[in-house]
């Protein structure tokens, strides 16, 4: 029973009983949800560690933390201020701590192992996006979920921002009639975009490429907004800027002999938190968080274009560019009665305004500009709403934002299909990848 409910339902009764403070504390402690985490990096510790403890610390308790890097898991425990044991062996953690809920925040290509084993050990799963990185792993997750009866929740935080929620409402309102196509273009700048090429993400074997790691966020938004499943995908992609496309390179920024002339030089030691999480624990795994963006082993694309056809006949033109001077995106929904345009300027390079805009234009009609406040902390309050949906659900989900394994699968399958299409030069059908059958209306 949740602590609040426990207090509400038992408060009066307890006043007249002989329960001591200690017994009450024990009863309450026993009622908190037992949560474990695998992958105590930046995301795990922040979005799913500190924030969850702050907001739901009376309803959950961390019973175990696991990371392949023994230094990082010890750092994580200290940063979270929790008392639970730490592990480098996942099976040992699951056997010893028996969590009810497992949070998976490891490197993308390893998610499947922990999601599947986690359910087999009896836990429900909260996994960061992308749910996984190839179609075989995706199928294995779907089957394990069916077999174990446990559930997988995928943390698509992008769905929860007020601006995107408003777009969802407008599309459902019929103001632009039936949507027939969408144009979606996302720009990562030379800071944020470059960061993917510094880290483990630069290798397909870890991230599945940015078509999976990053674009799966965007593909999920499309699936959710358009309320249909993707049917076929065609992609183009190249590595034209980072990696081998430079005259000089080194291993990582700190010892680099080219730092004076490299515009991408970055001093990680100026960031105390990142230094504690990564630099101080390099000795255990040799991982450099400030890796050189020009390394020749980069094998992901840095510009991508994808055509998607949905089962409901909507067609989408999508692109992702990773070396823009500014950060943001633009999207247009073209309908039979009008058009919705929306755009976002991300914080890093723009002077922020306290709102994001949406323009609704009707055929032979008028143009209206809507301003959606964006000042609440954590993506306009979206992050908190997502965590509430997971850790204190009230059964309400008016915008159908809660994402399960099917949503996680369909988002990554578009990226996987695009990657395969780029490799083969042929369009790829989503139904050919796993046992999931795409539907005209999202189920
Ligand atoms: N939703 C979002 O907006 C968002 C933002 C950032 C990251 N993420 C996701 O969160 C996850 C973690 O990203 P991050 O930025 O924290 O990366 P990170 O490199 O900081 O953390 C990953 C951690 O996993 C550990 N790890 C790797 N392989 C492991 C294994 N086999 N067993 C145990 N631990 C292992 C690493 O040592 C590291 O501590 C990724 O899947 C990423 O896609 C999502």
From TrEMBL:
By its UniProt entry, which InterPro entries does this protein fall under?
Gfo/Idh/MocA-like_OxRdtase_C, Gfo/Idh/MocA-like_OxRdtase_N, Gfo/Idh/MocA_Oxidoreductases, NAD(P)-bd_dom_sf
Gene3D superfamilies the UniProt entry points to: Dihydrodipicolinate Reductase, domain 2, NAD(P)-binding Rossmann-like Domain
Start and end of every Gfo/Idh/MocA-like oxidoreductase N-terminal domain? 34-156
Residue intervals of the Gfo/Idh/MocA-like oxidoreductase C-terminal domain? 169-430
Q: What is this protein called?
A: Gfo/Idh/MocA family oxidoreductase
């Amino acid at each position: 029973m949740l602590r609040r409910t426990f207090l509400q339902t038992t408060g009066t009764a307890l006043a007249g009983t002989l329960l001591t403070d200690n017994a009450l504390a024990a009863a309450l402690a026993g009622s908190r949800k037992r949560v474990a985490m695998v992958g105590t990096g930046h995301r795990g510790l922040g979005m799913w560690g500190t924030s969850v403890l702050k907001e739901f610390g009376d309803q959950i308790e961390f019973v175990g933390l696991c990371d392949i890097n023994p230094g990082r898991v010890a750092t994580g425990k200290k940063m979270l201020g929790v008392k639970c044991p730490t592990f480098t062996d996942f099976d040992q953690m699951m056997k010893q701590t028996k969590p009810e809920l497992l949070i998976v925040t490891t490197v993308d290509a390893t998610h499947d192992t922990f999601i599947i084993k986690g359910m087999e050990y009896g836990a429900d799963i909260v996994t960061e996006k992308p749910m996984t990185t190839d179609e075989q792993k995706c199928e294995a997750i779907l089957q394990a979920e069916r077999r174990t009866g446990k559930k997988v929740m995928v943390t698509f935080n992008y769905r929860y921002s007020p601006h995107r929620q408003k777009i969802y409402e407008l599309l459902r309102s019929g103001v632009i009639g039936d949507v027939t196509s969408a144009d979606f273009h996302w720009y990562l700048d030379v800071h944020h975009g470059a960061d993917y090429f510094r880290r483990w993400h630069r290798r397909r074997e870890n991230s599945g490429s940015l078509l999976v790691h990053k674009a799966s966020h965007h593909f999920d938004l499309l699936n959710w907004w358009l309320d249909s499943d993707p049917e076929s995908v065609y992609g183009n992609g190249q590595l034209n800027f980072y990696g081998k496309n430079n005259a000089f390179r080194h291993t990582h920024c700190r010892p680099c002999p080219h730092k004076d002339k490299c515009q991408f030089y970055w001093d990680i030691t100026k960031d105390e938190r990142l230094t504690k999480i990564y630099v101080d624990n390099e000795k255990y795994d040799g991982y450099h968080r400030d890796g050189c963006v020009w390394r020749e082993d980069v094998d992901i694309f840095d510009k991508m274009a994808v055509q998607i056809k949905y089962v409901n006949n909507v067609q989408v033109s999508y692109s992702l560019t990773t070396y823009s001077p500014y950060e943001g995106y633009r999207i247009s929904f073209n309908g039979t009665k009008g058009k919705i345009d929306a755009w976002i300027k991300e914080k890093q390079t723009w002077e922020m305004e306290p709102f994001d805009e949406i323009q609704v234009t009707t055929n032979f009609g008028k143009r209206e500009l809507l301003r959606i406040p964006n000042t609440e902390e954590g993506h306009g309050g979206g992050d908190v709403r997502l965590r509430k949906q997971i850790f204190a659900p009230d059964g309400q989900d008016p915008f159908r934002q809660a994402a399960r394994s099917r949503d996680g699968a369909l988002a990554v399958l578009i990226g996987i299909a695009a990657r395969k299409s780029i490799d083969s030069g042929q369009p790829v059908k989503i139904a050919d990848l796993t046992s999931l059958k795409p539907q005209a209306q999202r189920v």
